[in-house]
Amino acid sequence: MISNYKHAIFCALLLGSSLNACKTVKPAASDQAAITETPDTPITPEVLPEDDTTQPDWISKGGPYQAAYDRSFNLLHTQLKVSFDWEKQHMSGDAILTLQPHFYSQKDVILDAKNFDIHKVELVDKNQKVIKSLDFTYDSLQITIALDKSYSRSDVCSIHISYTAKPNEREIHGSEAITSDKGLYFINPLGDEIGKPQQIWTQGETAANSCWFPTFDHPNVKMKQDIFITVNNKYVTLSNGKLVSQQKNSDGTRTDHWKQELPHSVYLTMMTVGDFAIVKDEWRGKEVSYYVEPAFKQYARTIFGNTPEMLEFFSERFNYDYPWAKYSQVIIRDFVSGAMENTTASTFMESVQVDDREKLDQDWDFIVAHELFHHWFGDLVTSESWSNLPLNESWANYSEYLWREHKISKEEADYALQSELDSYLAESETKQEPLIRYHYQNKEDMFDSHSYAKGGYTLNLLRHTIGDDAFFEGASLYLKENAFKAAEIAHLRLAFEEVTGQDLNWFFNQWFMEAGHPDLFIKDSFSNGKVKLLVQQRQDPEYTPIYKIPTTIEFWWKDGHSEKRQITVKEANETFSFAFEEKPSLIIFDTEHIIPAVITHSKNTEAYLQQAKVATNIMHRVEAVLQLGDMITADPSLITVLNTYLKDPFWGIRETTASIFEGYKGTGDLNPTIAILRSLVKTDPKSTVRATALSTLSSIDENFLPIAQQALNDSSYMVIATSLYATSAIEGPSIVPTLERFADARNPNIVFVSSMIYAELGTEGKLPWYDAKLAEMNDQYRQYMFRTMTGYILSLQKEEEKEKAVDIVLKYAQNSGSSTQTKIAAYQALSPLLEDETLKEKIEETLNKEADKNVIDALKQQGY
User: Fold this and answer.
1) Same-domain status, 429 and 557
2) What is the Cα 505 distance to its own chain's centre?
3) Of 654, 553, 563, 657, which is closest to residue 599 (Cα–Cα)?
């Protein structure tokens, strides 16, 4: 699953700032081999802060031990027959569960089933004929069924349950990652929402599939399944496995039979109903299909076209062929997360549905790779409990790196990987947990930057620590030994130990089982033919381990030659000694830039100038360019050097350098810089570089308007949006006629910028535009739109306009399809109107009907 925390990052990047927000202090890398340590410490260690009794803000609040689910039964097979009442948003269900006691004899069955009307529960034979009715009790969350006798582990029984699922009539919960747990969703059920298709879809992770069928809703329960979906003949259906038959019915409906022949976890069961165009590819004779809205049929391969190549790459790289019957991908409306790896049928949020022009700004290949890769790590081998979620998500996260490395370049992969480290480090300021967490309050809390970002970064570290061959062979062994089973972190460790012959507890204990990360301080000196390198681990050992860190150091000299040395850091304070005839001009700690850490290693200007040229890892080059950028006010001569990096072959260096000059107020001559930036705006092949260059020019180029007006014809929406926003600061209200040229644009870059400009200018008469744009947007983008709309609402003067604004926003605040975050953003947008007693009463009347407790609690905390 791609969670919403990642989607929020993407939304933050929409307006032209790509991955250049790298910290000036960068992490380190490693290789292999050892070096001699010296007992002396010629460098005075930095004074570490004295201990105090105050706990850090990020200390975990803990929680009860979260055990894996105890399996009383094996769920051998589930048969479902379903049909829908669109008006009531109900599903009629008929389930037959085939069960076998796991080990101990059983007399009762307890099934998860949330908010059903249970019509009957029966014991049936292998031909599905009723043997007898069974007694049961039901508390709206679980059915407890009394069997007709005690069943041993050699016995098999089948239970038939007839029921009605009512997903909208239960208390809904959600998290940042998965905003709702209804399980079954009716989109535009009455067909009265303009511009939105009617759809039905499901989302099972973590335990929401029991909202539409009775089951054991736990990740370590695997089953085979047959699903019969009855819908109006105009609709397309999709589910797990193969479509084995379609039967037209006399009432204008059709029943589709989908068969999943290989066992998979309950939460990976899915179905989707809607008006979709289907575009088909194939891989090794297996169907590969893309389900998109009909208007996007011509762009289906734009979005998903690399899937067959990904299937081949991952199958070969991990020496384990894609095991499932087919692979489908479907884009749905108002999804409650980013994407979901349902077995053979992944679902994707609407943002992924782009045309060729929009793909210039956002290539979604990484999300396609992520969900596909789960079909090995997550679907084939599944975390036995949510405590072990990184066995799913860290691997899928790292697949993004592997795909970029294979398809584009290692530079591209390393550059993107930095955003993962930044994401984790940002989260670590308020939260530090072990990757494998057996103690937590809510399983939804596992879907965070630890499980995804830090986990993927840690796998990259493991790869470099044990070597490529051992890493991929170990991962392959893990898949082969645990295929179609549930696993925990020990299974992964043991696979790598089997391959390498090494005890890897030291690695797994400190990186997977402990919270935190290294905070490394590096200081170097040279005297008497020796480099002395002090390495301090400054993290608090009361809460964070002192790490064992094998790593590589590269020494450079002015003549351009270099030497590498390997060390292993083991202590809180260590000094390493290296004999050289001449003082190195540059020392790069963690050459491969792979340690998940905060690393402080100050260098002089000459060292950073050399590092920007010669470092082999792109992030060490980015670090040097950023450090040089921090020096240009004090040393304007560096502008000439940095201008050369505006022409660097790698787009990330060009973009980073362009951002450095934004708002520069120093005394240096920027005319050559401005000329290069103008050239980048006109000719750079990367839209984020063009947008960043344009944004920078708006702050330093006195003759900015001509290039900005030219940029309005750019192929990139991001560049156009950047031009509009930058120009509006200069032109003021006279920008409005230019905005009108883009009034019909649906692209989020254009819409968000237009919204911000209208709000800043207080442009009259734009409420109908806001109404139309909110209707066009998916739920995830609406929350961002509401945040930009708040300023516009503040500018309203007329009472009738204020009332209209309330009516527009409350449509989404009270919409059952809106997520918790969108509802909160909607009410926040209306907060400027609460001083009007009439409007306040209307807003509070709607709020009093809100069933989502998370919305109420969040607004109360904000003093609403």
Assistant:
1) no
2) 29
3) 553
| pTM score, whole prediction | 0.92
Beta strand residue intervals within 358-482, DSSP E: 381-383
Q: Containing domain of residue 564, as a range? A: 12-37+517-630
The Cα angle at residue 527 between residues 526 and 531, in degrees rounded to 5: 40
Asked if 371 contacts 331 with a C-beta cutoff of 8 angstroms, the reply is: no
Residues 834 and 720 in one domain: yes
Nearest to 344 by CA among 330, 359, 363: 330
Strand 253-265 to strand 271-274: parallel, antiparallel, or no bridges (unpaired)?
A: unpaired
Q: What is the DSSP letter of 54?
A: P
Q: How confident is the model over 644-670, as a mean pLDDT?
A: 97
Whole-number Å distance between alpha carbons of 286 and 764: 56
What is the tens place of the pLDDT at every residue in 749-795? 999 999 999 999 999 999 999 999 998 888 878 889 999 999 999 99
**Which of 577, 579, 631 shows the shortest CA–CA distance to 602?**
631
- Can you give the pLDDT at residue 19? 27
Smallest CA-to-CA distance from 114 within 208, 223, 218, 225 is with 208
C-alpha 331/C-alpha 351 separation (Å) is: 9
DSSP states of 164-175 as a string?
EE-GGGS-----
Q: Say if residue 21 is in the same domain as residue 169.
A: no
The number of domains in the chain is 4
Of the candidates 361, 360, 362, 334, the residue with the CA atom closest to the CA atom of residue 347: 334
Question: What is the pLDDT averaged over residues 471-493?
Answer: 98
What are the distances in angstroms from CA 135 to CA 145, 147, 608, 766, 845? 6, 8, 76, 61, 44
Q: What is the largest CA-CA distance in the chain?
A: 94
- Considering the domain architecture, whether residues 503 and 589 belong to the same structural domain is answered as no
Neighbour tally for 789: CB within 10 Å: 28
Contact at 8 Å (CB) between 549 and 606? no
Give the pLDDT of residue 45: 52
- CA 244 to chain centroid, in Å, comes to 34
User: What would the pLDDT profile of 387-438 be if each residue is shown by its tens digit?
Assistant: 999 999 999 999 999 999 999 999 999 999 999 999 999 999 999 999 999 9
The residue written with tokens 């090494």 in the block is 502
| DSSP-derived secondary structure letter, 438 | S
pLDDT at position 40 over 80: no
Residue 36 has pLDDT above 80, yes or no: no
Same domain, 94 and 232: yes
User: 3-state DSSP call for residue 610?
Assistant: helix
DSSP three-state, residue 620: helix
DSSP 214-269: -B--STT-EEEEEEEEEEETT-EEEESSEEEEEEE-TTSEEEEEEEEEEEEEGGG-
- C-alpha 674/C-alpha 651 separation (Å) is 18
Compute the radius of gyration of the chain from its Cα atoms. Answer: 29
